[in-house]
Amino acid sequence: MSTPPLGLLLDVDGPVASPESRTVAPELLDDLWRLLGAGVPVVLNTGRSVDFVAERLLGPLVARGLPAGARLHAVCEKGGLWTTAGAGEVHLDDELAVPAVCHAVLAELLDGGYADAMFVDTGKRTMATVEARTDVPAAHYAQRQCAFDADLAERLSAAGLGVQLGDRSFPDAAGRTPWRIDPSVIATDVESVRAGKALGARRALQLLAEDGLLPHAWHTVGDSRSDYAMADHLHGLGADVTHVDVGPLPPLDRPFRVHTVPGLGYDAAGRAHLRALADRLG
Ligand SMILES: [Mg+2]
Questions:
Q1: Residues of the chain above pLDDT 90, percent
Q2: The CATH classification of domain 7-80+196-281, taken from the options 3.40.50.1000, 3.60.21.10, 3.40.190.10, 3.40.50.150
Q3: Residue 122 Cα, ligand 1 centroid: separation in angstroms?
Q4: pLDDT digits over 39-79, tens only?
Q5: How far is the CA of 13 from the centre of ligand 1 (A)?
Q6: Distance between CA atoms of 91 and 81, rounded to whole angstroms?
Q7: Ligand 1 centroid to 118 CA: how many Å?
Q8: Cα separation, 23 vs 257, whole angstroms
Q9: In angstroms, what is the span from residue 221 Cα to ligand 1's centroid?
Q10: From ligand 1's centre to the CA of 12, what distance in Å?
């Protein structure tokens, strides 16, 4: 067994799945397959449900036949659950699961009028999530999402939950805010304040420590500010890490390399980066 040439931690929505169509391009799956065959361990680190990741990524790669020795895992729901490609078993952290009332409140709000712009992601097991409909313009969703998030915070607070929404805090009777409302470009999540990309990175390293040697060098890829937490975590452990930012905002200053893909964003940038890696390492 030799040290892997590189490790990959990949956000899914943005760099891998198109934020518009929510689909994964076949050529990106080809390049992931080549990288797995070259001994590159890959962990998907996403807020998505395990069902989404299984359908769009793990399933198609397993159906093709994973290369010998492939190390492919998915940490879903921002660290709430995780699985290994081909294994079928899903592990869940019960402590991260939001109270049942969160699901009820989402359903009420959609019944009350927000269904024109969004739908409930019924695949979530630890988070509660609404997602933008793919048939409404992004600007319409963004406008509805703002009002939705404020209504959601008020209703959850009224139900006795302590929640955070951006820099606003709605403490529970004990003064705590254990839950977070986290809006992104295509969704709003209700989640534990412990959930996130840093927790996902920790779980990723645990999964890889169990199935082989850890790489010294890593690439982390994401389109959101929160995705930097993957690289922050690895850098904090002394690893050699490059973060690839495929989002629309200017890259952040960090004590490690931060790359962009000039002229490209989101999944087009993700595809180009993985293609270049597969050509170099495959
Ligand atoms: Mg993303």
A1: 96
A2: 3.40.50.1000
A3: 19
A4: 999 999 999 999 999 999 999 999 999 999 999 999 999 99
A5: 4
A6: 5
A7: 18
A8: 29
A9: 9
A10: 6
